[in-house]
Amino acid sequence: MRFDVKRQLFARSERVKGIDFHPTEPWILTTLYSGHVYIWSYETQSIIKTFELTDVPVRAGRFIARKNWIVCGSDDFQLRVYNYNTSEKIISFEAHPDYIRSIAVHPTHPFVLTASDDMTIKLWDWDKSWKCVQVFEGHSHYVMGLAINPKHTNTFASACLDRTVKIWSLGSPNPNYTLEAHETKGVNHVEYYPQADKPYLLTTSDDKTVKVWDYTTKALIATLEGHTSNVSFACYHPELPIIISGSEDGTIKLWHANTYRLEQSLSYGLERAWCVSYQRGKQGIAMGFDDGAVVVKMGREEPAVSMDGSGKIVWARHNEVVSTVIKGGDATLKDGAPLSLPTKDLGSCEIYPQTLAHSPNGRFVSVCGDGEYIIYTALAWRNKAFGQALDFAWGSKDNSNDYAIRESSTSVKIFRNFKEKSGGLDVGFHAEGLNSGVLLGVKGQGGIGMFDWETGNLVRRIEVEPRAVYWSESGELVTLACEGTFTSSFFTRDYMQDSCWTC
Length: 503
Fold this sequence. Notes:
By secondary structure, the chain is mainly beta. It folds into two domains: 5-298, YVTN repeat-like/Quinoprotein amine dehydrogenase (Methylamine Dehydrogenase, Chain H); 305-327 and 341-465, YVTN repeat-like/Quinoprotein amine dehydrogenase (Methylamine Dehydrogenase, Chain H), CATH 2.130.10. The strands form twelve sheets. It has a four-stranded antiparallel β-sheet, with no helix packed on it. It is elongated. The model has no long low-confidence stretch (mean pLDDT 92).
């Protein structure tokens, strides 16, 4: 799977034990082993607020954005609440007779859950002057983590060093059931799958593994092995099919959430990884380490989308595909104004769509992702063709059923009318990407080769690295859009003549 990992914040500090995203501001909250708490702006790369709470570790902290508060729990047993705008202390009290390990804030009710080394979980109601309205007992060791089920917010999960995860319901003092999650070591972290289509949760342990569970059947779905030390956390990316795990081995590992294959391993040189937070509906992931915090953006904010020549649009919401139609002629609309359009669910896709593209005549839509491609009919969303591919490109308007795929850096294949052309394409260099059009564009090694669909011959190699290629309706002009420049070429079957402009 291909996705960008862009660093938004690299902040050195004392050991970060707790981390949280603000839901609307470009801020993260970090709670430190030193007893300090920082609010960072990952836009300006600066600390915008400091709280010197105590001289013992602050292991957990959360924003309560609807009240402009932060809530923090520490090793002096205190739960502290501050207004992050005014720095006013709202309340401070002893919440447990031992260290506070984890905090969860209910998304709609005025509730805060706390977990402690006293082996209990407590529910606090801030509308009742922070009264403890319920105690959950049943664990036999330190309770390390809490997670509220995003699909059923009346239930939550707890992770414990007694090697179990317990599922609870608000209002009931006894657990609904217990998962014997890890056989030999305690459970450090628990996290729910954030979407509606899978009843899954993740657990991590000092046994160096991440486990994926179905919480309805209590079945173990997968065990992810690859870390070389205790695994501190794991979570699902809120938009991409990725599981992110962090360990005391200092690495962050990215796993495919469907195949459970290890896709990438990252190291930021900040020693042991301790905590994680993500933004629902966005791309940000924040991680805390021994020597600081990192915020990265994975993937892109905009969805995979395609529009045909008549204004029909398809785009992907995770694995679901939606369509709409843009109709011109409304002279009252201004450039850049948002459109309110009715949408129609087309269906789902077997792979996670990273690109969508209409065929030139609009009858088909290609989906590419996860190293595979599928061609669907645009109206009924029926499977027409499929196969292995890293990239996909359609042919010209005159040959709408022609396409090419890139299987690897050394293999590009052309299909004429959905049938593979014998012999493949002799590219002559390492292929890194494809572009659709009258000529097939093959990018690689600092340039782009333009190939004839019929003969497979190289018409011209241009020594630029375009981000996009645009052909005119006539098929005689092509523009290569590059970083800061664009190149326009006049094409006939005999030659290509080009000019370059800087913009």
